[in-house]
């Protein structure tokens, strides 16, 4: 496989079998340098198995994984030097002080004394550990333990961070703190983030990869995924008494797939739900049609399918239309 200068991670037809069970089935994707990518899937989808193959903890049954151009199976140690890994249960020693644990990790990573001293100060400052360096890890809260886990993952200044459920078990305040830390790290490193907290993915990641039953089912930006195979939906309220006329008018506009009647805002108004074709955005055409036909446009808003609904559709095969109706019903109930 030809290595590009942009790709930090290259996965080609990666497969993992455990006996007769296929956990990961011929998945292929690449992650460019500087990207923060969400790696999602339901329980048992093969996420953790894939990350363990990327980090060299598991050898693939078939296929290839490259980190910074290095084949993990051919030169595992060289690839691991480029990786900072935080598994779901951070491998910490409760009876060690934070400072001693980081010294131990630094020595395992082969850092010389001067480099270790400088890196230790830097990662402790960034991870907010300066006040707990002398405490035993077993005395720390879950949030601080996760910070220690992140500190050990970045101590050797890796180019790639692989984080498996980094906010699992944290309270809302701790989740925000760790999320901001990950976004900060993502400004200078490539990050692959696995989590079940979908709002966290939307707030942090510029791209999402979804696997289900060991197969890759989606790879796109959060916005593109929520409109995949659906198209934009525009809710419009116009001042008119001729609902059929405006329905026909909007249905004939370029980029419009179909128009359904919806609730207006009282007498003399009509609501319409305009579904776009593909990636079209018909809002400008709707506005121009209202002006040209001397219609008063009271409201126009773009409706989105949630990432949660999209995730469910891709991993369970639930029809999109039914999920859109659910989302609309929820919004109406809370309005």
Tally of individual domains: 2
How is the largest sheet built, in terms of strand order?
6-7-8-3-9-10
The percentage of residues in β strands lies in 25-35%
Approximate helicity band: 25-40%
The shape, in one word, is: elongated
How far is the first residue's CA from the last residue's CA? Answer: 53 Å
Main β-sheet: number of strands, strand sense, barrel status? 6 strands, mixed
Q: What class do helices, strands and sheet pairing give?
A: alpha/beta
Mean pLDDT: 87
The ordered string of helix (H) and strand (E) elements is EEEHEEHEHHHEHEHEEHEHEEHEHH
- According to DSSP, the number of beta strands is 14
Second CATH tier, the architecture of the largest domain: 3-Layer(aba) Sandwich
- Give the class-level CATH name of the largest domain: Alpha Beta
Task: Output the CATH topology of the largest domain.
Answer: Rossmann fold
Instruction: Provide the low-confidence segments as ranges.
Output: 319-335
